[in-house]
Amino acid sequence: MMDQQVHYELFVRNAPGAPWKLEMAGENRAQVVEAAETLFAEGRVAAVRVSKETLDPETREFMSVSILSKGKVDAGRKTKIVEERQPLCVTPEDLYTVHARDRIGRLLEGWLTRNQATPFELLHRADLVEKLDAAGNELQHAVQKIAVPEAQARNTSVHELIRTFQKLIERAITRVISDSRKGRFPDFAKEGFAAAVERLADEPDAGYLVGAGVAAHIAGAGGWSGKVMRLLDLAAAAPRDGLGRGLAFDVLEQPLSEILESRAGLVELLGADLDIGGQLAGMTRLAACNAVAALVAIEPRVAESLPPLTGAATRLSEWLSQEPFAACRAAVGRRVLRELIGPRRLRPSSPRDEIELLRALGMALTAAAGQLMPLENVQEAFAARSRTLVSSEFVAALLGQERSAREEADLLIWLCENVVGGANKRQAARYLASHIGQLRFEKELRSGPETAAQRLALLAAMQRAAGRAGLDASDMAQIQAKLGDVGGLVEADAKLTQALVQAHAPVTHRLSLLLRIAMGEAAPLGPAADRARTAAMKLLRSDSARAELAATPGGLAQVRDMIQAAGLAA
């Protein structure tokens, strides 16, 4: 088994019933699975499947085991996989498509990060392609990573496919270097961005030529933030209208989107000291600055979880709110969703802050849904994130070690309120029902330092809060009943209803207190409320009480609404 070769293949189905196609392959299981999750979460494919391929050294055959399957995957008999027989890219121009640049970015991620460059820059800068060409092992390894699984899928020779890709790469490198030496690429320092774009707008390869000028312009920038600032400078200098303006922003969006989708680029842009939650807050501010600003005006507390941006990020957010950079907004939105559905904690040091952050993110992304991303994708992402909130590890961290049973109950009710998705709501409800059903909770509420009336009011507040949590009816009934039972024990211990009936106080005052308990306002609905309702009815029927109410100006009017709310109206 030690001699076996293992790699992972990602197949996608672009539409229900369409043939499976090989999207990527690699030796890193986590990377391939993450790519599959991303493609499916973004709705770019109808189904994804990841398989583990193990080469038997004796038979020289691959053994396939499926490790992930999502979407419109046919059940029953195994569907024959139909692959495209032509290489994904056959001409140098094919390497400049969005799909090709995305694959180049994954295959050469390490090299590009070390050289602080994007796939867009690599494809347009002669100095970068020469540097990559000189690093033979890096390029050869990337070719092998894509050639081996594709050769297997197409039933062709690995060496033949490697030679095909190598010839394509040589042609692409020669093209960039040759055009650079011939002076075909524009120099914005000499003629200006707008003038160069308008001059080249009618050229067949205008995007390629303008892209080379953009890549050269941002090459000398200091870091990712510097590149972003230079790109925005070009955006400000773009033609005001016409074909040239469309061409300018089509080109500028490409490197900007790649920077925003790269982890290194966003970390530098938003701040290296931020945790994942802080990065998500910053990305949300970037992609939905107008929605967040409107939300903060209504709910100022949101600003605590989504603080304002600084530096280059502030300027970028202003540009991203404009229509020409819609693709860049979408790129940031995709990053936000990827992080939300990921397994990593957003605020590892504070579960409570993590829930507060998710509340703010949920409001902001829901407000921006439609323009930024489909609402369904937002809901699915938060349902996926909610699964981590109801894990035993997270709940244990949220409750801590030194909280009272009442404080823990309040936190669990808050958790129920903030998770989304039916299964997650049910799991949160199970935690809450189990907790309030413990003897520890009952003892603390029956013998706490507060007065009986205060403890009953606390239980009533818990019951109302649980009622607002959006739980399933059966789960809610169980929780409400248990809180009511504990309230009944507290009231019985103190004999509160009996004391109110026998108290030497005006009948309006006694009735008001009894009716507040019966309504679930001063005590939880359940046995305590039932006893108060019965006592109030007896008091109302007594001749002395009727006489006192009749003799008191406005006495009956004071309690009439409460009588109706408590269901005692005749």
Question: Widest sheet: strand order?
Answer: 2-1-3-4
Tally of DSSP helical segments:
31
Q: Low-confidence parts lasting 5 or more residues at pLDDT below 50?
A: 75-87
Whole-number mean pLDDT: 86
As a percent range, the share of helical residues equals 55-70%
- Tally of strands: 4
Q: Which class of secondary structure composition applies to the elements?
A: mainly alpha
Biggest beta-sheet profile: 4 strands, antiparallel
Give the oligomer, counting copies of the same chain as homo and different chains as hetero.
Answer: single chain
For the record, give the distance between the C-alpha atoms at the N and C termini, rounded to a whole number. 83 Å
Shape: elongated
Evaluate the radius of gyration.
33 Å
Proportion of residues in extended strands:
5-15%
Would you kindly provide a written description of the structure presented here, covering whatever features stand out?
The chain is mainly α and 570 residues long. Among the domains are: 5-71; 495-565, no CATH class. The chain has helices at 29-41, 98-107, 109-114, 119-124, 126-134, 136-154, 158-181, 188-191, 193-200, 206-219, 223-236, 242-261, 263-270, 276-287, 289-298, 302-305, 312-320, 326-341, 351-368, 375-389, 392-399, 405-418, 422-436, 439-446, 452-467, 473-494, 496-502, 507-518, 527-541, 543-551, 555-565; strands at residues 5-13, 21-26, 47-55, 62-71. It has a 4-stranded antiparallel β-sheet with strand order 2-1-3-4, sandwiched between helices. Strand 1 and strand 2 (21-26) form a beta hairpin. Helix 9 crosses helix 12 (242-261), helix 14 (276-287) packs antiparallel against helix 18 (326-341) and helix 15 crosses helix 19 (351-368). The chain is elongated and about 110 Å long. Residues 75-87 have low confidence and may be disordered.
